[in-house]
């Protein structure tokens, strides 16, 4: 049977040569004072340019958005130049790449902010352990953002979108999932505000839609995707309750009018994390597919067989692969040939350097 995974697809203005998407993967290789991408990072992305689409690692929109060491940004000229190395290398190798724009919010440490507190919708500690570059460190209670600061964050995302165009990206993805800042606004466990950014579904989604309106001034929305992880429970301080699915239904209903390139939906991360949870959905794409009028990118630890099945059933339009792309730079070709996959080495995910980054073998 002909592979749907290896067939082309259109996501908004993005013409993908196949439906194998490289998921955004933080690798902590921007180990310089400018938080700028490096020639080594350009090599890494170019090696993987046979993907239908590369989604960059999370890229912080301002120093305030940092939550991890050695993650790249997109607020300075040095960062634009570094990302231009990456996008030029990817394009020369025949690939497409979008930049995932990121603000970590409360998932951060004072050490990344000169001793100042991280920021969040509300002063609620996620009670999580963060990778600091010197082992794991516990999170602290963040500082509540003012309305003026929220407007500044929207402006930071707009600036990053403008810089993404200057850096040569084919589009952007707003990282509005996984317990980071936008998700913190969505969830009742992390947002107890009583102003225009808290309470109702409309208010808790306000930051996302203000950001989409702002980035639309810098590039067409058919080159913009968003990532959502509705059923994140017990990780990064997030919990699921009876209001979670209705909140994300309301978000997707509003997103439909924006005619984005795609909605990137994540299935539950961990087995049994939703057992006995009121309001839980074990099949995220199945629940939202009929409601979502935007092309759907599914993310959920898929193997080739499951990805083909989901595409054949039209549960999604493309599939994002994470760890398989770390260890298999030529993943689409391995799928085409039915070749075995290299195993990924978790010890090298965040350690820096070439090992476990650009040295995984491709097929002959």
Q: Biggest β-sheet, characterized? A: 8 strands, parallel, barrel
Give the SSE string: EEEHEEHEEEEEHEHHHEHEHEHEHH
Beginning-to-end CA distance, first to last residue: 25 Å
Share of helix, binned:
25-40%
- The CATH homologous superfamily corresponds to Aldolase class I
Total count of strands: 15
Which CATH first-tier class would you pick? Answer: Alpha Beta
Secondary-structure-based class equals alpha/beta
**What overall geometry do the principal axes of the alpha carbons give?**
globular
- Return the CATH topology: TIM Barrel
Q: From the alpha-carbon coordinates, what is the Rg to the nearest angstrom?
A: 19 Å
Overall number of structural domains: 1
Beta percentage is 5-15%
Low-confidence stretches: none
Count, helices: 11
Averaging pLDDT over every residue, what do you get? 97
For the biggest β-sheet, the strand order reads 3-4-6-11-12-13-14-15
Please give the CATH architecture. Alpha-Beta Barrel
